[in-house]
Design a protein that fits this description.
Elements (H helix, E strand, L loop, with lengths): L3 H4 L12 H4 L14 E3 L1 H8 L6 E7 L11 H14 L7 E7 L4 H11 L3 E7 L5 H4 L3 H4 L4 H7 L3 E5 L1 H6 L9 H9 L4 E4 L11 H18 L6 E6 L3 H21 L8 E6 L6 H19 L3 H4 L6 E3 L12 H14 L8 H13 L11 E7 L14
The structure holds pyridoxal-5'-phosphate (PLP).
Pyridoxal-5'-phosphate binds next to strand 7 and helix 12.
Amino acid sequence: MTDDHDTLPDPVMARPPFPEQFSHLPRYPLLYPHPSPIHPLAALTSHLTSQCASPITLYAKREDHSSPLACAGNKYRKLEYIVPDILSSNPPTTTLVTEGAVQSNHTIQVAAVARKLGLKPLILLGKDTGGGLAAAADKDSYLRAGNVQVTRLLGADVRFLDADGVAAVKSDGSDVPDKVMNQVRKDGGVPYWIPSGASLHPLGGVGYARAAVEIVMQEQELLGSGRFDYVFAACGSGSTVGGLIAGFKLIEKLERERSGSNGTPPRKVIGILNSPTRPCEYHKTRVLDFARKAANLIGLDPEKDISMDDVWLDDRFVGSAYGVLDPEAKQTLGMTAQMEGVILDPVYTTKVMRGMIHYVQHGELASTSSMHTNALFIHTGGQSALGAYADTD
Ligand SMILES: *Cc1c(COP(=O)(O)O)cnc(C)c1O
């Protein structure tokens, strides 16, 4: 193991005056050394905004093109800040253990990172997490195809959990799946537990705080003095949205300090929920917690600088269950494919796109900073699950 990756300059963090606390946080690069691309959604923009009173332009940030590793998606960004902790354990970690739904994208990304680090991936998949398996016409295929296939291809030790097993792996992380971890230890291994979606990990939100910095960097190139007034992202386990909130807060605080003025209105992160299982309030509390944890690590005052007013979650697009492609989401999946040639994923990003379209069509995007409103859709990946959704028509 060398420290080479720690000494590479980070182009995103290179610009002063970032708090050293943030730029010096250990990060192991899993992404490409350049920002994930942002491009306009030209056809959707003209289709959706022709009736709008003031101009709106829609853009997409392609987190599905952020990394050379398997099925690039948002978990790699989070894992960049977790890998140094994995590598610092003594005795050295041998096995990464994590959990997810049957068609989890997170578990693929953990498995690929394990392979990159020369470690073993042990993956627990909850059959009863969400409604994907129950809704699948071909259940055998749902348990084999799509992301399960990819996870197996990565050589992961994949174990399915039934309802009892899921209860043992509490999603709040309070009860680490002891049996599995102990089994690894008994076999002479050293397991490292990564909670679902990596959100409950203390470092889980930092990756998307850095993504916010990246977005602002790209904003200047793409929009000049304009900005992304609205940022739409999926809210599952919550640290993508939480991290983005913290990152934009930091940038806007620095902007205010530099200009001495109150500046322009804050960029608004809109988290689109994708599961009706728990009430919106539950997610808001979690996201606030993740945003504050990240804030603390990047040089903000978590209590003073971040409040519930910064957390905007929308549960109108959750559909019938997590992991189920409802008719509205399916329509959005097809429309985005056919208008833009862009493929979304069946679990998260279709619901986000559906939400963003709703905001545009119903005039819910007020122009905040200028006459021209820019909205950014974060494509967090996940298309590799589509193979398991082949029969949902
Ligand atoms: C995990 C995931 C999300 C949700 O991100 P969280 O940080 O867990 O809220 C969104 N989109 C895709 C494709 C994902 O895999």
